[in-house]
């Protein structure tokens, strides 16, 4: 049961929050659920907080912590630890992280003139750092948003350079927010990765499990793929919803409207200071003053709200009469009336924010597709999706030009999925980073469990089955050197010939089997 009264989204501020760091339902005329069904009378109850009690596929009791809240036991799998909040020692992280969601809302306007190259030659996913304390600085460029890797000089499959793919940032951000949203009438976030895995399967030159051995027939490949991916995403749901249920954390619409109502938290000597307010970010989050509302000044449209907080952000559904033709755009708005980039019949998901399901599902699926295909790359070195000009977006008209999403690696797609939820106003970075770590932890557990079910040798280079890749295996391989009619265990890559390629795989696996 939520501790907060519902947020009335049509009214400014959030005086209904008893604790703005905790989950808060919404007061809506009606809500459209995952299957596209309108639910009259408002908002559904918190969905799936009990999933810590669901039987996992590969997670074990060692991954589970039993916690208590309000006299009840909560099973929490792969608990990332305490959630930042306005009332604990991590208040600065809470405020900065939510402010990033607010500043990125100001990047949803195709008319702002900002152009970016989104080809794999220009941007790639950055790796998760070793220390979780470095996650934000590694993955986010402060209040400016995602931090990308430098791009690849060449397509590793074709050997050719990736062509530039320059688009409007406001189109890219909106397409990402909607492509990965998987809201009403969609295949849902985990289903989205099944769709991607189907496209990968359709374009693979060889269906070799783990990238080695003989080609599998289509049915065996699909059974293995679906069971492995399904089991892994099932466990991701268990872990992430166990965290959501126990930690019961707020969504950005709750926290940002509350903090904006309080004022600014950066300058104790300045106007509108409150320790629970929003950080000041010049040009993005500011205090409205008589000077800034003067004719011709940046807050002119907010005259009468002097002393309150303004944000350069998406203007919201009040500026959209017809989503097929209207674009809300971005402008200086009253921060306590901020809207996520979502439908007004949805606004935010009906369950806690910490941690992000999209980030966890996507990281887990990307790691699994790497393990299953034996390559970090999409077939041909690039996966694509075309969002057609003025036909693709649903929340408002657009994109203003056709946008082709491009990913060299599965990790590139996963990172864009994670960032999409910040652009969409559904998560702050503090929800994103620990969820990626959960997905990364689950993928190898699920892959190993699936291979155990399939009876797949966990160490294919261990040709004599003694638990180690050693001189005996090298002898078997050298004794089988050359054409391998009918298949043989030493033909590790399944090309019908025991050659230097197989020798390289054997030497790479040298030593005790995992």
- State Rg: 25 Å
Unreliable stretches covering 5 or more consecutive residues:
none
Q: How would you describe the oligomerization state of the chains in this entry? A: single chain
Structural class assignment? alpha+beta
Give the overall shape: globular
Portion in helices: 25-40%
Looking across the biggest beta sheet, what order are the strands in?
A: 9-10-11
Topology order in helix (H) and strand (E) letters: EEEEEEHEHEHHHHEEEHEEHHEHEEHE
In short:
The chain has 514 residues and is an alpha+beta fold.
Brief descriptors of the model:
single chain; 514 residues; alpha+beta; three-stranded antiparallel beta sheet; two-stranded parallel ribbon; 32% helix
Question: What do these coordinates show?
Answer:
- By secondary structure, the protein is an alpha+beta fold.
- The chain is built from eleven helices and 17 strands.
- It has a three-stranded antiparallel β-sheet.
- α4 (189-203) packs parallel to α7 and α5 (218-247) packs antiparallel against α7 (357-373).
- The mean pLDDT is 95.
Set down the secondary structure blueprint.
Blueprint: E1 7-8, E2 26-27, E3 30-32, E4 38-40, E5 64-69, E6 72-77, H1 91-105, E7 115-117, H2 135-139, E8 166-168, H3 169-179, H4 189-203, H5 218-247, H6 252-262, E9 285-287, E10 309-314, E11 330-334, H7 357-373, E12 383-387, E13 403-407, H8 410-423, H9 429-454, E14 468-469, H10 471-479, E15 482-483, E16 497-498, H11 500-508, E17 511-512
Parallel strand pairs: 1-2
Antiparallel strand pairs: 3-4, 5-6, 7-8, 9-10, 10-11, 12-13, 14-17, 15-16
Helix pairs in contact: 1-6, 3-8, 4-5, 4-7, 5-7, 5-9, 7-8, 7-9
